[in-house]
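Hi everyone,

Forwarding the result from last night's run.
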Amino acid sequence: MTALDISVIARRSGLPASTLRYYEEKGLIRSVGRHGLKRVFDDDVLERLSLIALGRASGFSLDEIAAVLGTDGRPKIDRGMLTDKADELDRTIRLLSAMRDGLRHAAECQAPSHLECPSFQRFMRAAAAGRLRGADPRQRG
């Protein structure tokens, strides 16, 4: 394996060095030493960073990704976790599709006032009942 300093890893991965240091702090990646003041990583860290990027793009938190990556450098992908995330994405897609359709209807509605439109009224009631909130738990409550 080839040891690469953090600036090379940053350039090859497209991530700023600060993100790499943060990932190391979170236990997602591990440096193998230092070259002067710079951290040094094995070149296999690039594959690990690709896995992290895939996890982030799929909506997983860094803590969830850390659990998948494990400490021995070999990912332990929980298929149930993948299924749960896919189900969550399905719910989000349905929600966003319904919101898109409601907004398009509101934009095209010929009623004199949106408040006179039965479809817009249903959309407002759904929002008031919390049925238009996303899957993000920070939006609840």
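The beta strands are 3-5, 33-35, 38-42.

Cheers,
N.
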